[in-house]
């Protein structure tokens, strides 16, 4: 049985890997892609998504343009320091030209149309800021039961990457994240950076991908700026493909080990803005000290077989 999948994304180098992973998986019915602001501005993320799909010869997949800014407050900056000025290490133009026009009506309309027309519940892989998904949940409560689950790359249990407390995707629109994770309207799987960092790939892994064929070579050609950033972040010669880890879970449920835990998002303007507060205490203790606003329960990915996951990613990305 194939997974019915929609990807909401802000490409971004790791988003490009995630899109290719889904596009190359025979057990995935990739229904559509929606873009959102984030790693770079909306025009660039939309164009990058369409170019990656063209690289994967998936002109059949519709792409719609989503939110250009957060729900409430302005977005302070984008992630050019990691992804380069165009989101793909300055090499977006090396990818093929898009094969298909952007869909009319925007991201929320496409999300709603795809959910309405699917005979089976659909998984949404949300690998950028959660603005589009939050808007969908607010505007179309009649479609909640059409969503199998939302797999979210975002959040951090220990420390952030954009601030000391917050991971980039959640920090980019904390109000949207609070709506999606705190609303209790659809099942959510949160894939935090604590785990995605542990899944980092080496330059040897990238060399194997580059030598696998034209798609692998094109993907690895997008990584120089990203690699330079992660050499500093990791302290060794490798990089983190956060979003591909989340899409792996969307494709193969259970490839990541997850626990049901209360999750809250900090929306104040203090130093913890955008932090995900995950209550990892034993259930017995949580029950004794329960307080209002303790967070809705999400499944939080905490572990995986690291070697097996890297093999899974490489095998899927090297398909011709």
Automatic annotation (TrEMBL):
Taxonomic superkingdom: Bacteria
Gene Ontology annotations for the cellular component aspect, listed alphabetically: cytosol
Segments forming domain Inosine/uridine-preferring nucleoside hydrolase: 5-309
UniProt keyword annotations, A-Z: Glycosidase, Hydrolase
InterPro entries in the cross-refs: Inosine/uridine_hydrolase_dom (IPR001910), IUNH (IPR023186), Ribo_hydro-like (IPR036452)
Any single GO BP term: purine nucleoside catabolic process
Example of a GO MF term: purine nucleosidase activity
Protein name listed in UniProt: Nucleoside hydrolase
